[in-house]
Amino acid sequence: MITRDEFEKVDVRAGTVTDVKPNKKSRNPAYVLTIDLGAELGIKKSSAQITDLYTPEELIGKQVICCVNLEPMHIGSVKSEVRVLGTDSEQGVVLLTPTETVKNGDRVF
Q: How many structural domains is the chain composed of?
């Protein structure tokens, strides 16, 4: 269990995917997503292993939910600055998305 104070340190925001490319140097199939997180946070990159269920064309313009305050990590040759959230489901990773269009950078709590 974590405390409420610990939970409140996790910064989760909505953003819109603006570009998708294969992460050619990732050990597992992955995309490099460019995500617009609004004026406050700007444009960030994320490497996401979501190739089983999503094509690049489906992802462009899709709003996603991201944790924006994790330490960046290198996946292949990509600096993954944010973590895109999804469920670890039987069919693969299913992205968490807002059911209504929201402003890029809106906080999830």
A: 1
CA–CA gap between residue 57 and residue 107 (Å, rounded) = 26
What is the number of other CB atoms lying within 10 angstroms of the CB of residue 69?
A: 13
Residue 40 lies in a domain: yes
Beta bridge partners, 33, equal: 20, 46
Cα–Cα distances in Å, from 38 out to 28, 74, 100? Answer: 29, 23, 17
Contacts of 7 (CB under 8 A, 6+ apart): none
Position 104 in a domain? no
Q: Which pTM does this prediction carry? A: 0.94
Phi–psi pair at 59, nearest 5 degrees: -85, -30
List pLDDT tens digits, range 45-80. Answer: 999 999 999 999 999 999 999 999 999 999 988 999
